């Protein structure tokens, strides 16, 4: 997107996002991005929730059947 963020599916692999955007999201434990967020929160988040993990801002846009289906991610400074 114009602001440097990306929209992605919750099942997107962390490694793929890191390679695509030259990011350094942690790949320890959870491999899909929705797993990273769920693990961080220790619960399934609701839509319209924003969190920050290691200078990356995650905006949960859609949750379907208790699974994060759409996320907006932006790297902070």
Overview of the structural elements:
The chain is α+β, with helices and mostly antiparallel strands and 77 residues long. It is built from two helices and four strands; from the N terminus they run βααβββ. It has helices at 14-21, 33-41; strands at residues 6-9, 49-53, 56-64, 67-75. It has a four-stranded antiparallel β-sheet, with helices on one face. The chain starts with 5 loop residues before the first strand and ends with a strand. The model has no long low-confidence stretch (mean pLDDT 90).
Question: How would you briefly describe this protein structure?
Answer:
The chain is built from two helices and four strands; from the N terminus they run E-H-H-E-E-E. With 77 residues, the chain is α+β, with helices and mostly antiparallel strands. The longest helix is centred in the middle third of the chain and has 9 residues, at 33-41.
């Amino acid at each position: 997107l114009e602001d440097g963020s990306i929209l992605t599916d919750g099942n997107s692999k962390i490694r793929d996002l890191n390679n695509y955007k030259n990011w350094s999201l942690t790949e320890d434990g959870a491999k899909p991005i929705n797993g990273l967020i769920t693990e961080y929160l220790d619960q399934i988040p609701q839509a319209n929730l924003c969190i920050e993990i290691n200078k990356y801002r995650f905006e949960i846009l859609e949750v379907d059947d208790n699974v994060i289906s759409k996320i907006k991610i932006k790297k902070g400074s």
